[in-house]
Amino acid sequence: MVYSIKIPRLNSSVQEKNEIGLSFDAYRGVPSTLCGGCGHDAISTAIMQACFELAIPPHQLVKLSGIGCSSKTPAYFVSGAHAFNSVHGRMPAIATGAYAAHPDLYYLAVSGDGDTANIGLGPFIHAMKRQIRVCYIVENNGVFGLTKGQFSTTSDKGTQDKRGRTYEVEAMDLVALAIQSGASYVARGFSANKPQLVPLLKDGLQHGAFAFFDVLSPCVSFNNHEGSTKSYAYVREHELVLSAPFNDRWQALQYCQEAKQAGKIVTGCIFKDDAPLNFHTRQHTDPRPLREIPWTELVPGKELLDQINAKLR
Q1: Reduced to 3 states, what is the DSSP secondary structure of residue 211?
Q2: For residue range 116-172, what is the model confidence (pLDDT) as tens digits?
Q3: Whole-angstrom Cα distance, residue 102 to residue 122?
Q4: Residue 293 in 3-state DSSP?
Q5: I need a surface site. Which of 57, 123, 235, 237 has the fewest CB within 10 A?
Q6: Which residues are 84's β-sheet partners?
Q7: Regarding beta strands 150-151 and 185-190, do their DSSP bridges make them parallel or antiparallel, or are they unpaired?
Q8: In this structure, are residues 83 and 63 in contact, taking their beta carbons and an 8 Å threshold?
Q9: Distance in angstroms (rounded) separating the CA atoms of residues 20 and 177
């Protein structure tokens, strides 16, 4: 049986207001229908807190997701934001198109290890290489929760499922992949460590290009047992908090690899480019959002079109 968590609502009249006069309630969504204790709900709370503290107007936030338990979570925070729930694995392509047209908005993408690292791996890598400006969160629990707990590609070699079966394939390390694929901000968090996660999310939302977050988020129904490396107990015991990010990709990779060999899980901001070149900067596109460009500029006319075609002959 699956139990939902009803989020208590406080009286907004006595709540603290942020810089734009909104209370924390303005950043809530509908009550969660995920399993009680799911790490994803803690991440949703951290997202709400980060948006509240940054005083992001809800109508200037775009929420994007794919398919899976993680991709249900955008319904649980900032109900006044724009939202798009895409097909399985194709959310990065939707995010790319939205950002290309409207670069003035905040983009927050929520995915899972199956949605991103299995079926959605190709679009994910290209979104990083293009440096679209998005805060991209993978809620990583190492299993396919909606289909009863099969191993995912981020399951660690040697980990066991609830039935005692052992995973025999090397895990895909999303942090290493993001660093090598060109993401300009790469972090790992833990859903049970809100004091660390909220500042990381605030930093990522303000980052000028692709900000990637691998957030370990235990699945209480299928992957929170002894023998799992994605359980609350295992992550707490093996977490290694990094105090400051590397600005060299290969140093960051080496540090994480050495920590992994020592049985540690590095959390914190691992790599950060302080002067990233995002998609629009690289492409020299018009800085105005599409909705603000006059129709006459979007349809230049036959004479100019003939000139362009002549150059291509």
Answers
A1: strand
A2: 998 899 999 999 999 999 999 999 999 988 788 888 999 999 998 888 899 899 999
A3: 23
A4: coil
A5: 237
A6: 64
A7: unpaired
A8: yes
A9: 38
